């Protein structure tokens, strides 16, 4: 397992936002580089730019879909994709929605940049761990090679 604490800190120092970090960790684990994907993920950062759905919530869904989603070239959408996404979003709502009064970025950080620095790194680390747990429980190998279910 990679040193997630260090990698999250490193990416934050480079200016990556929460959604970028989750997807970059997935790319790292798959030994891939995809600047276009990271650019597209910018649309999820900071609650889609306006404080809506937390980028840890949406970025985590993207991380799961990096393994279980369809890609028109090789793989069909995994039959358990939506159950895995539901498990992840239920976890996020239960764990953080209740704690912070909702799952929107604006609810979690309440417009205070200090809260972003205080809360977001822990949210990101917990999300990476939860996404891995869900994927592994559903037969995905996160070994940096295929990232596809072995079942």
What is this entry, summarized?
The chain has 151 residues and is mostly helical. 66% of the residues lie in helices and 0% in strands.
Total helices: the number is 8
Number of domains: 1
The low-confidence parts are: none
Helix content: 55-70%
Subunit arrangement of the protein: single chain
Report the average pLDDT across residues: 90
Annotation, overall tally of beta strands = 0
Give, in order, the helices and strands: HHHHHHHH
**So what's the overall shape?**
globular
Q: Over the alpha carbons, how many angstroms does the gyration radius reach? A: 15 Å
Blueprint of the fold:
Layout: H1 4-13, H2 18-29, H3 35-41, H4 45-51, H5 55-68, H6 81-100, H7 105-109, H8 113-137
Helix pairs in contact: 1-8, 2-3, 2-5, 2-8, 5-6, 5-8, 6-8
Which features would summarize this protein structure in a list?
151 residues, mainly alpha
Describe the structure.
With 151 residues, the chain is an all-alpha fold. The chain has one domain. 66% of the residues lie in helices and 0% in strands. It has eight helices and no strands. It has helices at 4-13, 18-29, 35-41, 45-51, 55-68, 81-100, 105-109, 113-137. Helix 1 (4-13) packs across helix 8, helix 2 packs antiparallel against helix 3 (35-41) and helix 2 (18-29) runs parallel beside helix 8 (113-137). It is globular, with a radius of gyration of 15 Å. The two termini are 22 Å apart. The model has no long low-confidence stretch (mean pLDDT 90).
């Amino acid at each position: 397992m990679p040193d997630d604490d260090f990698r999250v800190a490193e990416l934050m120092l480079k200016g990556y936002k929460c959604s970028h970090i989750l997807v970059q960790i997935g790319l790292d684990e798959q030994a891939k580089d995809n600047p276009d994907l990271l650019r597209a993920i910018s649309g999820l950062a900071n609650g889609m730019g306006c404080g809506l759905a937390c980028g840890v919530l949406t970025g985590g869904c993207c991380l799961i879909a990096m393994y279980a989603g369809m890609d028109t070239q090789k793989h069909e959408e995994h039959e358990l994709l939506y159950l895995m996404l539901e498990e992840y979003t239920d976890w996020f709502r239960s764990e953080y929605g209740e704690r912070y009064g909702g799952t929107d970025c604006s609810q979690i950080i309440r417009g205070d940049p200090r809260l972003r620095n205080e809360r977001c790194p822990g949210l990101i680390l917990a999300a990476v761990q939860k996404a891995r747990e869900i994927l592994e429980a559903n037969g995905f190998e996160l070994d940096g090679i295929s990232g596809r279910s072995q079942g």
